[in-house]
Each structure stands twice: as structure tokens, then as C-alpha cells.
Task: structure prediction
Amino acid sequence: MEDIKKLIINTVEDAVIEEKQKLTVTVDWKKLPLLAKTLRNNKDLPFDFLVNLIGVDRGEELGVNYLICSSKDLSKEIALKTSATNRENPLLYTVTDIYESAHYSEREVYALLGIRFINNPDMRKFFLNSDWKGFPLRKDYDANPDINPVSIESKEIQDIAPRIMETEEGQLLEETVKVFEDDDYVINIGPQHPSTHGVMHFRVSLDGENIKKIDVHSGYIHRGIEKLSESLTYPQILHFTDRLDYLSANMNRHALCMCIEQAAEIEVPLRAQYIRTIMDELNRIDSHCLAWATHTNDLGATTAFIYGMREREVILQIFEKTCGGRLIINQNVVGGVMFDIYKDFQKDVKAFIPYMREKLAEYDRFFSHNVIALGRMVNIGHLSKENAIAYGVTGPAGRASGWSCDIRKHIPYALYDQVNFKEVIRTEGDSYARYLNRLDEIEQSLCIIEQLIDNIPEGEICAKTKPIIRLPEGEYHARVEAARGEFGVFIESRGDKFPYRLKFRSPSMQLVSAMPLICKGEKIADFIGIGGSMDYVIPDIDR
Amino acid sequence: MMLLNYSQPLELTKLIKWFDNLLRASLPEFWTLLIEFVVVALALLAVYVVVALLLIYAERKITAFFQARIGPNRAGKWGLLQSPADMIKILLKEIIKISRSDRFLFFAAPFFMIVASFATFAAIPFGQSLHAIDFNIGVLYVIAISSLGIIGVFLAGWSSNNKYSMIGAMRSGAQFVSYELSAGFALMTIVVLSGTMQFSEMIEGQRYCWNIFNGHISSLIAFVIYLISGHAETNRGPFDLPEAESELTAGYHTEYSGIMFGYYYLAEYLNMFVIASIATTVFLGGYLPFEIQGWDGFNQIMNYIPSYVWFFGKTFVLIFLSLWVRWSFPRLRIDQLLNLEWKYLLPINLLNIVLMVLLVLTGLTLKDLFGIL
Amino acid sequence: MNSLSKYFLGIYTGVKSLLVGMSVTWKELWTKKVTQQYPENRKTLVVSDRFRCELTMPHDENNEHACTACGICQMNCPNGTIDVQSKMIETEDGKKKKILDVYTWDQGMCTFCNLCVITCPSSAIKFENNFENAVFNRRKLIHRLNNEGSKLREKKKEVKPAESKAE
Result:
């Protein structure tokens, strides 16, 4: 990393480098694209994966934090910081020409903070209506409901995208551009639709049966969790994570607890680590079962849907007996876990493992080689490795394109460095590879559980923490491998008992951002099938 | 006339003959015929509706058993009253009029579907002397009339003024026209084998040897092709793209409600029944029992079971097969569907007809080989 | 000939995969279904005892509870679901003491995060697992947890064995 520091100083002389939790570099906003491009095109260690793009109201000025890392070794991370100079009309340069995954994140920053990005091709607001007054994440936001009342009349969707482009002379030009052509046949898929895995609105322009362009219209389940968290203490924020990607509830909560524990330097007892890891893997199995079930349902095999749910029931009963929740697993707290395992936990889990293996063989016989299913999945929705990295697609979908991106292998947390398991990678990058990846990951999770279930040590389940948890000042990141990809938490604390800024890095947002790319030219019937194979969960995107 | 010699007490032949004699004795010819026509039509209507209700119940229960669930079991014992309850509900539902649709076509569309379906239904031989329409071009009549149903689908999709419905109707139209070819050719193969297009004579020819055994390889291939094409024609099974629930919500009948939707629903189930019963008649011997020439004792036992039980039993086996196939496979996409028809089914069909002609001409059919009557 | 053999091989593998799939559903047709018939099975239903349905304040046979009206649960609730009303009374010694007046819990707003239960210093409240809580009026979801006329359980003093034998 010393070479990287030298490179940074060579590119931008007045960059301020600090060694905090991550290597943090603060630059002037005009020099940021140059620095990002240099780091991305670095020969030995290219930093080509933009993990997180966080808009922050720093008090006097508005700024953006970036977390970038290398796609070859995910543990090499750099945090970039920059701020806009003018609070009335904040402007920053875009990084969408360097990292494709920044498109939706920058639109989100515009909607929630008001920062506009120069040279971003589409600067519409992402979660909020275009006529929303005020910018919610700013500290001086007026939350009076009369300013933004709930509209009773339906609003037309304006397909006009404003943007700011910089000409060669350095002039800033504000222009608008149309999203669809005038004679496009545009249909709406969603928000009420049996197969969009949540409330997501896709506007699709068709040419016969083929898709020409997709526009994602999000925000139907935006609950403002990040703003809410700024007025709650850390234990009170924990229950929100169960309601983001509710299928990897335990893993999300694990990420938030890990972030707080690393910041406050609380050590988690070994028994709690065992319980956390086993519950994480069980959660991953039940999430992949549901992903399989809904994917096959989208393709038309309703019977397979019920079979997947039947397997989930066994896991959900284990969860219910452990912590009282089936979907909303209220298990992790800061310092450990809330409930100890019940008496028959090991017996139930050990009975489940051969049962699931038998069912995996049944799924294989039933669906994986079915000639109709193969025709619907093979060579459909191809995502290449470069695009997967550029769009930030992690999880089973990213690994199906040949990119090794498992956080459990690159940056091991909990007990993942002490167990043997394979990272499932395929190179075809089509829907069939994603489908098979999920089934193989279930098998790997079963292997992990087998290695841990008999060796749970005695001890405390939760470390003693202060009644009021205050994090020391600073910025903290945590990354875990959720069922859909990399889930990240960013907390900026100013020494208070509330976080100053809390951001969740959502894996499903990057999965959806790759949809316009991979669905172009495919048939409309395949659009649903590709969505099923990518397996995004909408509350994760909207937060 | 060996039929009447075996004097099965459960056949309806005697009852029908008694009724016919009663009318002829008391009324002139014209009135006799008129009353008989009306009675037959009413009876057919009643059977139509009852068969539809039973089929809906059977589908829901069997589907549930395939899917690790139980199915309806609250309305009446074993859920038997669920179908009548659904029928009453559909009759009482409000018919939502759409403001900007083509009114006349919108209301006329379901009638095409129902009339085509009912007209085909009337030509099916249900049992001994339970055969309403017996043309000498039976097979041709059935194929021609059933193709009127597609007009109903097109009109529904067009007049709904809904993008999704139109996409569904277009897909359905392409699918129907393609698969009708295959179904027709498969039936032609059997016409070659049995030498007649009239249903009653075809059944008579299968007394000791069902057609599917008679033509061995060739009629087996024709049987499989007929079943596949039949499913595709009626939007059933893995070919239900026009009403793909998880994609287009309901395809061409999205905008219909109440009894108008009920017509489409009914027609879909009855079409499945019609395909299965025509397959039974043509390939599996219709309402005739399973007899072996020379084993008189065995034949008597087989004959004791009434013909309509044989018929419905065989049809039910085929319907079960249809349900089994539907719930085991995902859906085919429209281009894969058309691919299947034009690149696989049609060439195989043409070869099959040639093969069947060769079989018949060279005397290699089972009947000729074993000297069965 | 190669494409012709591929054609027929394709048909063969395709049909075989379909038949294998059908055999799986055939097996499922005959397995015993695990559906339970609710509400007929209420007597034999087993709900896990950690399942969180309704917040209760356990009272013993003397109608006493353990809540000291400290308000920690109210502060910890992220939602504002708990409302602790206390009042000041005079004890026999003439000292002023704060005791619980009305403890209100809104079941309609609760997220069942369990923070109130684990932060309570006197273990006064716990979640029960009776899941039949549906009502027709939203106001009925606001429960009062302490019974009428109940009071705080006094901490018992140590009883020596000799004294109890003498009783």
C-alpha cells in the first residue's frame, strides 16, 4: 500500500492522507476524477470496484465519501473524501465514466442531499418525486408534513432527464434529454406485479417481443431508514436491518453489529461467534431456497415454488425456536447474540443437513436438467466479468460471471477463516450459471454448518457493554457477504450516542443497475426470468 | 348387433329406445324430432356444465397433491361443494364495463369460444347410443369447428384496449394456428389406419384391438404428437404463455369479469376434456371395453362395466396425464414453442403419415398380423 | 449426418429429462401432506415459547408485579410504543416514592425488537406466545399491562430457617 500512497501524492500533490480504520484520502473536488481514474488504471493493483458512494452533510459543506477497493483482492481498500464548496448550489464531478455502479448512487445523493454531479448523463432524483421540496439528509431539513403532503391525484411520470454537462472550454451547460423516443411502445412492469420481487417499477420500451430500453423507477418502499437512524441510539437502530433485505436479515444485522463492535472495540465471545456464523449460514440457505423457488416460479414451474418453501419451513422453525422470529430474526445485538441456543438446536440442525442434501438432489432431478428450463436459462442475460466489476454486481450473480468476490474469503470475519469451504465460481455469466451457483452455495453452507455444529464452546453469549454506547469520533466501514452480495455499513460518528451519518450499501441496488445492460435485446418473457435469476429484493434498494 | 345380445343392465340404450317409441307413438314425426332435439341439447348442456365443474374440482385437488398441499377441503366434505360455490360466485359477480373498448366485440368474443367448444363437445361419443352428432366426416368436422375458438381469443385481446391483452392474443393466435396443423395431421394418420372419418365406425373397428396397439410404432408417435398439439392448441400445460400469470397477469382475458370470464374459464377446461376425449375415441377405443378375441369369459366381465364408465375412465387417465405434465414443467417461450412445432413436430408428423401408409399397405398392422377381426 | 444425429440425440435427452422431472412429482403425489388444519388443531398446536406475540407484565397470586416505573423500557423503545405513567405517593415513613400508575403498550406500533424486555432491570415484562391477537378496532390494540389494584412486589427479607420452623 506504500506504493499506492506514493501514487496518490504524485497525482494530486495536496491530497491529505490519513491512516484511520481505512486509508482515507481527502482531495479537492476538481481533482477527484483524476485521482479515481489513476487509481482505477493502476497496473499492479487496479482499484476498479466502487463499493460505496455516501453523501454526507458535513456541517458547513456537503460532501461525498467513496470506498473503492481492488477487484482482485477485496481487502485493499481506500476511502476517498471530497466536498462541494457552495452549499446553495453544490456541484461535484461524476465518477460514472470511471465506475458504472455510481449511476443510481449519485442520483440518490442528489435526491437526498441536493448535490448535482457534472457529466452524469441522467440527473433525475432517484427515490423521491421530482417535485419534492427540500433535501432530507441535510441537517437543516424541515420535516413538516405540510410542505410535502401525500398527493391524492396521480402524477404523470416525466420521462425527461435533466443534466449538467461540461463543454471542452470548461463551461457548464444545463440541458434536458428525453429518456424514451416519441414512438416507443412503453409498457409498465410493476409496481404491482406478481414477479418483480417487491414494489419495483420498470418502464420497458419494446420492439415486438424484444426489449429496447429499460428505465428503473424506484422509491415505492423508501422509508427513510438512514435519516431515522440519525435520531436513535445504536441498539435502537438494529431492528431496522431486519427490514432491509429481509431474506438475509441475520447477515445484515451482523454487519451493523460488527461495525459498532469494531468501532467501540468490543470483543465478541467465542460462543456468540459460533452461534452467529451458524445462524448466518442457515439464513443463507433459506434465502437461496426462496431465490430458487421464486426463480422457477417466474419461469412457470409453480410446483417447484412450493417445494422450495417446504424446505424453508424447517429452517424457519429452527429460527423460531431459537430467537422467536421467522423472517425478522432478532438475534444479533452489540456484543453478541440476544438468545442462547435452545436445548435441541444441535439435534435439529444435524437432522436438517441430510434432509436438505436429499432435497438438493431432488431439485437437480426435477428442474436443473429439464430441457424446457435449460432453454429458458442457458445463454440468457449474459453478464461479462468486466461488467460485473464495473456495475458492482457481487454475490452469486457476480461469481457466476467469473469474479471471485466472496467477502468471507477475502476479508474473513466471524469464524470464516477457520472453516473449509469452496467459493463457487462459474464463468458463463448467464442465467443458468447464476441458478446453479445458488444451489451449489447451499451445499457449501451445509459443509460450513457441519464443521461448526458440534464444537460450540461454552461461555457467554454477549459481552458486557455500557448501557449507552458511544462510538469514538471517526468513520467506520463494515462489509459482510449477505445472500445477495456484499452488504456494507458506513457509520460516521461525532462522539455522540447517535450516529452522525449511517449508510447501508445495498447489494440489490447494483443487481438492478445491471438489469438495463443485460436485458437489452432479450425477449420480454426472458426479462422476468433474468430478474428471477439476479434475485434482487426491493426493500434493500429503497431502504 | 352383438351389442344388444350381451344385455348389460346398466346401459342406457333401452331407456332411450323406450323414450323414442313413446314419442313416436303419440306425436307426428315433426314434433317427435323437435322434442328429441330439445331434450338432447338440454342434456348436453347439463353434461357440459357438470363435467366442467367436476374437472375444476379434480384439477384443484390433484394439483394440490402434486404440490405438497391438500387443496380445497372446507366447502363440503373433501371440498366437493367448492366448484358449485365458485360457479355461483361467478354468476353473481359484477360485469365491469370498460369505457374505451369496442363494446360489441368485447361482449361477442366469449361467445365464439363457448360456441366452438360446445359444438365440438356435441360430436363426442360418450357411450353406447349416447352419440349426438355422427357425421360421416366426423374427424374433419371436429377439427374445423374447434378452430373457431381462436376468433374469440383475438377479439378479446383486441377489444380490451390493453397492451398486455393484445400481446397475449397475438401470441395465442400464432400458437393456435401452428399447432392445429400438427393435431390435424396426427388425426389424419389414424384416418389412414381405420379407413373412415366417421367416429362410430372408427370405434367399431377398434372392438378387439385399440388403434394405439393396431398401428404400433406409428400410432404411438401419432398419439404423443396429438396430445402435445392438443395441449398447445388449448393453451394448457407448458404452453400457457398467453395467460402466463407471472408475466402478463392474465393475458387476453385480463379485462373480463363475472360470467364473461366464466365463459373463458369453462371453455378452457372443456377444451382440455374435448382433446382428451377425442384422443380416447380415436386412439384408445372410445367407449368400448378392453376385449381380446376368443376369451369370451373375460370379455363378458369387461362388458359388464357400462360403456360410459369406460369412456370417462379412459378420458380421466388422459386428463390426469395432462395435469401431471402441466405442473411438472416450466413454461415455454413463444419462439421456443413455434420452434418445437415447425422444426420438430411437423417433420416427424409428415414422416409418420408416410410410415403409417406403408404399414397399412404392406399389411404390417397388428390386426393384419394376428388376423384379428 | 452429424446434425441429424444431434437432432435425434437432442430429442432423446430432452424427453428423458422431462420424464425424470415427472417422476419427482409422481413421488410427491403419494407423500403424506404436512398441512395442519387450523383452527381444529388448537389443542395440539405447539408454538415456540420464545415467539414474541404479546407483551405482558406477569402478576403473581397476590396481584403484585415487579415494575418500578423507572421508564428505561420507554426510553429504549425505538418507536414510542410504551407509555409509563407514574404517580407520587407517600409511604408509611413519610417519604415520597414514585410508583407505577398505568403502563400502556401499543401492539399496533410495536416492532417486537425485544429491547424493552432485555433492558428492564427488574425483569418486569416479558413476551408471551399467544398469537391470536386480531381485533376489529385499532384502539383495542392499545393494552394496559398492569392490572387494577396491583402493586409493586416488595423485596422479601431473608427468612432464617429457625424462625419458619417455629411458625
